[in-house]
Amino acid sequence: MNDMAVALQPAAYKSDYKPIWCPGCGDYSVLSAFTKAFSMVGRKPEEIVVVSGIGCSSRLPAYLSSYGFHGVHGRALAAATGLKLARPDLTVVASGGDGDGYSIGGNHFLHACRRNVDLTYVVMDNHVYGMTKGQPSPTTEPDWQSKLSPTGTGLRVFHPLVVALAAGANFVARAFSGDPNGVADILAEAIRHPGFSFVEILSPCVTFRPEQRNWKQAVHPAPVGATDDPAKAARRILSDDGFNVGILYRGNRPVYRPPVGKAKKQPADLEKEFEV
Amino acid sequence: MTTTTSTPRTSVCIALCGSGGAGVMTAGNLLLEAAAQAGWYGLMVRSSGPQIRGGEAAALMRIATHPIDCMDDRFDAIVAVDWQNIHRFADEVPLDRSSLIVGDPEQGAPPEVFVKSGARAVELPMKKIAKGIPGSWPNMIALGFASQLLGIPADKVKAVVARSLKKGAEQLPASVAAIEAGRAAAAGEGAAFTLAAPPAARAKRWLITGNQAAGFGAIRGGVRFVAAYPITPATELLEYMAPALPQVGGVLVQAEDELASVNMIVGASYGGVPALTATAGPGLALMTEALGLAVAAEVPIVVVDVMRGGPSTGIPAKSEQSDVSIALWGLHGDAPRLVIAPNSIADCLTATQWAVHLAEALQAPAIVLSDQFFGQARAVTDRPADSGLVGERLTAPAGSEGYKRYAVTDSGVSPMAIPGTPGLAYTADGLEHSERGIPSSGAADHRVQLAKRERKLVAHDYGAQWADVEGEGGIAVVTFGSCTGAAREAIARARADGVNARLVSMRLLAPARPKLLAAALDGVDRVLVVEQNHGGQFLRYLRAEFELPRTVRSFRHPGPLPIRPEEVHRQILALEEESPR
Ligand SMILES: Cc1ncc(C[n+]2csc(CCOP(=O)(O)OP(=O)(O)O)c2C)c(N)n1
Ligand code: SF4
User: Which residue of A27, A59, A100, A109 sits with most ligand 1 atoms within 8 Å of its CB, as the best mutation to test the pocket?
Assistant: First the structure.
């Protein structure tokens, strides 16, 4: 096979399957950013696997021409970790929503950051459970009212970027789906960066959080570039307005590599230890 | 059965006990190894009190002239280095009037629970003797005594001790002297407990635990990825695989929980690498959602469940066959899965290897139902032959035209595209889907895919391994897993009484094979169902899935006590008395 073929255009990374998303959903732009980023990174569709959980955003893999894995709610990172450790030759991207990643999958999020396997995790954060029709997620504002939370949750919002830094993620960025080119640039960087890269994409749910259409006006580029100091990055993120967009942290922690044997033995070679 | 006889014995049971740090496990392992070196078969079960470390411990041993898969009904001797809390083992170490209680007078009198059995007490001042041999320990006196009692040659005992001391060779003379002293003390006991000579012709023998056997079986079957979360009594399986797997090019990762471990192996296997996790009941309960994912997305995985007392945290370090129902029925939706139950320690290897082969061939999850008894017992067995069965998945070649991942086929198995293969990219999905893998809630797609996933399991030819069927007669003992050893011995005793019974030990529990069981029960009019749990989970399964003769008796009790051969023997004799209705 001739690998020197011209890089594939973004369109080559789209599948012919039509998304089920509501018109205007932020996730359309994220999908388009994925295709651009894959084209920039230059890996062929068959060398990429996008792994997701359950939610509107988790439907994304099937809309790409790469391999996809649409698993169960909250476990995308676990499946992606297993896949990457078993098949280090593949480019593995996990993706999903804020409920999927920060609530039911919260434990895996922490440990994926800690473990620092070379994969990229993309969360399309709309501060709501879209697929189940509008319940609060960990990133929902405490006073946001819904049928399930008539008086709001009263709970402090979860801060994924800072949690990711504290847990050891090696690359942390925030993006906004309204700027697909910006998202694509960040995604491509995240994929190229070794270790666990975490990209939080503000992606409006126009159906259950129509006010998020105003995010377009709220977002702005982060005033300073990425740092390699997690404490500095965390302080900046904690004190920003939540709409700073860009690469915020680029670390150089060693990438997790599972222990590999020195000698490649055959199973029969392992029988000795049992012999009487 | 309680008469003392001097004809050599074909099997002897002995318990070595003491508080933590007394070294009884070491002594037990050495005794087992020496017996193995001399050509006998044997079994050692470790039992310990509730303390995490340092509590009372017992090495429950059985040495025999023939392969054995269970403890006997009673113990010939208990040798206690001290008596601290040893009364807690009274249920597990039943004694009778022909038994010996060997204790150190310095440690006080033997506990009443043992004495009231009528067993004869023998004083062995282990501490005092050890004091007289600088550098020696009371457990070596106990080892010497036990080895002499059973007639295990001194040179074999010394050889295994020497090997175990590789680094502390300077301790060898003291240990040898202690063993000699222990043997001298036992010389007066005569030959009542002496084992008959081991079989002359000998194939290669192994010393292995069920957990190691399952781990090695998985490796033989082709597993190269393991993710798991520690849990008693499955941890040793993982601890065996952690250094072993990398040597054959595999990877093991400790996951953050069982939800992660099962999803990790699904991810790895989706990537084309045969994958396994091991757990116990609480972990299996957490894994059920992703087992359903493996069913729906048709991703082969193997989950070894080393059963322990349940429900909930239950009795973690004791055996019980009480995960039958969750393994067979415990997934949501119509979710066909493979359930395979090894029926001996050696079979933990063969059955797990088979499970890997089946999971891969049928692109389905396989649950291997081992248990704490198998997992943590160490046995001398004949080397389990390599069945040669490895995972071979039907994969789709690059360039397949109009590829459909979930194509409906006669066998129900569809070629799987492995990531990296050009032109075949698809999205594996736990959502119901069309043949192409596109999510679908249509009635036709659901029916077709449900039927396909069921068909691939029921249409498969599982061969003779589906069960071990032995013997003849109008009575059949139907059982599975670790009750098999006791059932087999019970049938042999019944035969000596002139009552014939056959054994059906089912290895393949799911999918159910009613025709195969019917053939195995041809001519049988009375069935005894034997299982180690309270509710009769296996019986209920048999009643639900199979045609059984009219007379069906259930013999069962929960863990932690094992089903003993004599209990089953009595049931067979009682069934013989009953004429078929
Ligand atoms: C175990 C389990 N619990 C609950 C659900 C129901 N469920 C499906 S998607 C979802 C939340 C999705 O929200 P989010 O991850 O934020 O994604 P979005 O739909 O907003 O993109 C829930 C609760 C499920 N599928 N599985
Ligand atoms: S419900 Fe919200 S998140 Fe889901 S597709 Fe519609 S707009 Fe997007």
Answer: A100
pLDDT of residue A3: 47
B465-577 in CATH: which number?
3.40.50.920
Q: In the beta sheet, which residues pair with residue A199?
A: A122, A173
Q: Is the CB of A160 under 6 A from ligand 1?
A: no
The domain B207-382: what is its CATH number?
Answer: 3.40.50.970
Does A49 score more than 70 pLDDT?
yes
Domain B11-189, classified CATH 3.40.1490.10, yes or no:
no
Q: Rounded mean pLDDT of chain B? A: 96
B:186-225 residues touching chain A, CB 8 A cutoff: 204-208, 212, 216, 219-220, 224-225
Q: Which protein residue has the closest C-alpha to ligand 2 atom 1? A: A130
Residue B319 pLDDT > 50, yes or no? yes
Query: What is the CATH code for A17-273?
Result: 3.40.50.970
Q: Which residues contact B154 (CB under 8 A, 6 or more apart)?
A: B147, B148, B179, B180, B183
Share the mean pLDDT of chain A. 96
Ligand 1 pocket test: pick from A123, A132, A212 the residue with the most ligand atoms within 8 Å of its Cβ: A132
Where does residue B86 fall: left (phi above 0), alpha (psi -120 to 50 degrees), or beta otherwise? alpha
pTM over 0.90: yes
- Mean pLDDT on B518-534: 98
Domain B207-382 shares a fold with domain B465-577: yes
Token pair, residue A174, equals 């925030």
Residue A5 has pLDDT above 60, yes or no: no
Q: Could you give the angle at the alpha carbon of B501 between the alpha carbons of B497 and B507, nearest 5°? A: 140
pLDDT digit string, tens, across residues B453-489: 999 999 999 999 999 999 999 999 999 999 999 999 9
Neighbours of B42 (CB within 10 A): 26
Q: Would you state the pLDDT for residue B581?
A: 52
> Taking CB atoms and an 8 Å limit, are B205 and A271 in contact across chains?
no
A–B CB contacts, 8 A cutoff, strictly below: 187
